[in-house]
Structures are given as C-alpha cells and as structure tokens.
Amino acid sequence: QSVLTQPPSVSGAPGQRVTITCTGSSSNLGAGYAVHWYQQLPGTAPKLLIYGNNNRPSGVPDRFSGSKSGTSASLAITGLQAEDEADYYCQSYDYMLSGSRAFGGGTKVFVL
Amino acid sequence: QVQLVQSGAEVRKPGASVKLSCKASGYTFNNYDINWVRQAPGQGLEWMAWMNPKSGNTGNAQKLQGRVTMTRNTSISTAYLELTSLRSEDTAVYYCARGQGWLQPFEYWGQGTQVTVPS
Description:
Chain A is an all-beta fold.
C-alpha cells in the first residue's frame, strides 16, 4: 500500500478540466514536504511534470498545474487533449520510510 | 543533453542475481544522486534505492533490505544495481533516475530495463 493515495482513474472529454488528488499524512505532505508529479505515457519511462508543488519544468504546457494544501495535493489538467491519456504519479518525501521516497499508486487519465 | 542509458533486458531463474547498469552523460556524474525505481507489470512505481556517486553513500527501501546493492564506476559515469535472491515478484521494468537529495524530484530517467524471473 502506498503512503500517498491517488484515485485509480479519472476521465474527461477533450477540452474539459480534470483533477487528480494525492492524499498523504503528517509524515509526508502534512509535514510540509513538497510533492512532485510524473506523467507516464504507455510503454515509456515516467517524465517529470510538476515539481515543488506547482512548478513546471521547461517544455511542460501550462495546461498542467499543481497545488498543495495540508495533507493533500492536486494535479489539474485544463483543456484536456487526447495526448494527455496516460498514468500520473505523485511523489514526495516521507520521514517514516526507510529511504524516504514515496510514490502514489498512480492515476490513469482517460480522454473520452 | 542529460542522458541515462540502461543495460538490456535480463531473464533470470528464481534464486539468481542480476546486475543492471545505468550510464550517465551530459552532466557531472558525481554531482547528482542516482535512484532506482521499478514497475511490475500493470502496477505503479516503486522506489527501490539511491546512491550518491561522489561519496558512495546508499540507501534502500526496507522491503529490499539485504537483497539490493548499489555501486558505481565514476571513471565511466556508470551506476549499478544488483538484486539477489530473485523471485517471480521481482519481474518488472527497472528505471534509473537522477535526483539531488531526498527532497528533489527525479528530473531525468533512463529508458528502463526489463527483468523477468519466470515462476
């Protein structure tokens, strides 16, 4: 079981807005540690999408945005496109874990 | 440009060991950590281990304690992950990823190495 909880799937029509939640606890997000988000297209390696809660690496469209509050974080995709159909993972630091890195279980985004 | 190039697919029998490599280029190898993350078929990402190439310091997930070893050869900018006592549950794609400290993201990833342990 992941210490960061994500919904298994979300879906939306092209052009719509979808949100993926990442729920943690007092030993990770609630302790103030940043959350990072990764996008994994089918058959490819994960790609960093959002870092430090709400920062986009160069080249990531501004349709993707992140936020964090307390023990939860969210990734929003606005103007959903067919190419956004992928798996999305949140990741943070957890001081209760050996090695300290934690991933969420992942969320599949379906574009209807 | 930063690149992490991993070794090819491996098939091992249960109980055997496997050693994977991750060759870095496009940056100073010693300045960034190397992490290993694996993904079992149809499953999510699982963080396994990290290494600071400069100091050689390592750490790993509790569930892999005693079975995983990370090493490096700084002269060729290559990190290695060895996993022993393989079992069918270790069948996965193994990724190396560059990080920097415990709080920073995994900014660059290798292409992945398929490891298959038939049951």
